[in-house]
Amino acid sequence: MTFRSPIKHCRACGTAVVYRLPDDGDTKQRAVCPTCNTVHYENPLNVVGTVPALPDGRILLCKRNIEPRWGKWTLPAGFMELEETTAQGAARETDEEAGAQIEMGPLFSLLNVRRVGQVHLFYRATLLSDQFNPGYETIEARLFAEDEVPWDELAFRTVKETLVAYFADRRAGSFGLHCIDIE
């Protein structure tokens, strides 16, 4: 199943759009306004977050207070906003969801989730404190060692794949960049 959010009306003039190949040589059907000829592109959304960890290897997870997956555990992450970099968005989400003080590290995982039209980017981050002040979207923010992670209670496959890679790299003593396609 391929993700498609149907555009029904032109954002420029309000006319009902038609899906067709644009006249500019594009090879994909797009929402095109028959009145003003505006082509409306549908692009993936970026989800940005962190893998916040203490030097002892414990990682911070947040228990979701919102749908989807209310009550499940996740890494602090959310949709990237306009006018911010992916790293800025990841830091903002970590603050909003966990109230965690972090030092941002390098990009760690990039996950393509085609069926829902998303790209997830997680950065490694060092926790500067073990004190958290979760926001509205989080029931609880808590530290977990690898053997304490509630693997069956994780909210998203992207989080599970990122954590599996993180703990494997930590055991190996070297962190890489992980690019993963999720079908």
Brief descriptors of the model:
Nucleoside Triphosphate Pyrophosphohydrolase, about 180 residues, 3-stranded antiparallel sheet, Ubiquitin Ligase Nedd4, Chain: W, alpha+beta, 2 domains
CA-based shape: elongated
| Domain tally | 2
Low-confidence stretches: none
Strand tally is 11
CATH architecture grouping of the largest domain = Alpha-Beta Complex
Helix content: 10-25%
Distance between the termini: 9 Å
- Proportion of residues in extended strands: 25-35%
How can the largest sheet be summarized?
5 strands, mixed
What letter string, H or E per element, gives the SSE order? EEEEEEEHEEEHE
Whole-number radius of gyration?
19 Å
CATH class of the largest domain: Alpha Beta
Number of helices: 2
The average pLDDT score comes to 95
Q: Kindly report the CATH topology of the largest domain.
A: Nucleoside Triphosphate Pyrophosphohydrolase
Fourth-tier CATH superfamily name of the largest domain? Nucleoside Triphosphate Pyrophosphohydrolase
> What structural category arises from helix and sheet content?
alpha+beta
What does this structure look like?
- By secondary structure, the protein is α+β, with helices and mostly antiparallel strands.
- It folds into two domains: 1-42, Ubiquitin Ligase Nedd4, Chain: W (Single Sheet), CATH 2.20.70.10; 45-182, Nucleoside Triphosphate Pyrophosphohydrolase (Alpha-Beta Complex), CATH 3.90.79.
- 16% of the residues lie in helices and 34% in strands.
- A hairpin with a 6-residue loop joins strand 2 and strand 3 (39-40).
